[in-house]
Amino acid sequence: MALNQVHNTKNPDIPPKLFTFDRTYGSSSTQREVYDDVAHSIVHSVMCGYNGTILAYGQTASSKTFTMDGLVNPQNSQNPHRLELKESGDTGVYVKNLTSVTVQSVPDINRLLLVHHFYTTPYTPG
Fold this sequence. Notes:
Elements: E1 2-6, E2 17-21, H1 31-47, H2 64-69, E3 85-88, E4 92-95, H3 106-120
Antiparallel strand pairs: 1-2, 3-4
């Protein structure tokens, strides 16, 4: 665990802010290093049937999506479909036309990642 201080350079009279992080990564960190340190044990648990969540938080354009997804190039990345959030008095908030899929192997997950990229890549008209 690391304790970091952030100083206000515009007003040095303001005391530094203190932040605690389990891990921090600099610009020379590799995707493999981040995966091994943060995600590997969670992915292993998910493959054993447990729920798991990995949250990537960071500055815009800091490669969060690449770190989470890696290199995936679907053949058709242009799709005008959008996910729609709906609300029902009976079931609460839900995603319209959401599909639940059970996966049992790495190839199953890779197929779902391709579908994910197909539906989440912004549509750019011709």
